[in-house]
Write a structure and sequence with these properties.
By secondary structure, the chain is α/β, with parallel strands linked by helices. 37% of the residues lie in helices and 17% in strands. It has helices spanning 35-44, 46-52, 90-107, 127-141, 158-172, and strands spanning 5-10, 21-25, 63-67, 75-79, 112-115, 150-155. Helix 3 (90-107) packs across helix 4 and helix 4 (127-141) packs across helix 5 (158-172). The chain starts with a strand and ends in a 6-residue tail after the last helix. It binds adenosine-5'-diphosphate. Adenosine-5'-diphosphate binds next to helix 1.
Length: 178
């Protein structure tokens, strides 16, 4: 199987200039807001909302791709994660975000993509459960990718980084429960 590098880092999704695309934990209307969406739209400038307008609304699990405007990347991929406890099945919808984002990145012949921990903020998805879905899905999709060879998870807190590290280690060790 082709090799896909998975990097885990603590940081800000808007400060990843060496990746081709960053992923937005978007809202259905693809508007600015709090958390990741606010940070991305602020850094990208008003042109991003304008480009997003005709693409909205999107449904949980879906992803759309736009330019990155004033961000230092080539593209932004906007994913709508599930609201935990409301959009079901949450795990399949969250996996859909990662799968669809990587498909779009691969179709655009990109090499690298950075994700935030989609749905784990305002949308309330417990971070360890979300990390398991996210990392498992990226590993599953890896073999089908032609172009993407690096996926970075950008975690906002030291705790979230630690949880992702632990989940990835268990997956790499082949723990059946993961
Ligand atoms: P959602 O609505 O999908 O839950 P949020 O933007 O509320 O999305 O949060 C998703 C995750 O991203 C949370 O863990 C939050 O702490 C984190 N986060 C918030 N701002 C940033 C940022 N600038 N860069 C990376 N991660 C961020």
């Amino acid at each position: 199987m082709r090799h896909l590098d998975i990097e885990l880092t603590r940081g800000d999704i808007t400060a990843q200039p060496d990746v081709d695309a960053i992923v937005n934990a978007a809202n259905a209307e693809l508007r600015t807001g709090g958390g990741v969406a606010g940070a991305i739209h602020r850094a990208a400038g008003p042109g991003l909302e304008e480009e997003c307008r005709p693409l909205a609304p999107i449904r949980p699990g879906e992803a759309v791709i736009t330019g990155a405007h004033d961000l230092p990347n080539r593209y932004v991929i906007h994913c709508l994660g599930p609201v935990y406890g409301r959009d079901e099945p949450a795990d399949a919808l969250l996996a859909g975000c990662y799968r669809n984002a990587l498909r779009l990145a691969d179709e655009a012949e990109l090499g690298s993509v950075a994700f935030p921990a989609i749905s784990t903020g305002v949308f309330g998805y417990p971070v360890e459960e979300a990390a398991r879905v996210a990392l498992r899905t990226v590993r599953e999709v890896a073999g089908a990718l032609q172009s993407v060879d690096m996926v970075r998870f950008v975690l906002f807190s030291e705790d979230d980084l630690r949880v992702h590290r632990e989940v990835l280690e268990r997956l790499e060790a082949g723990d059946e429960d993961e």
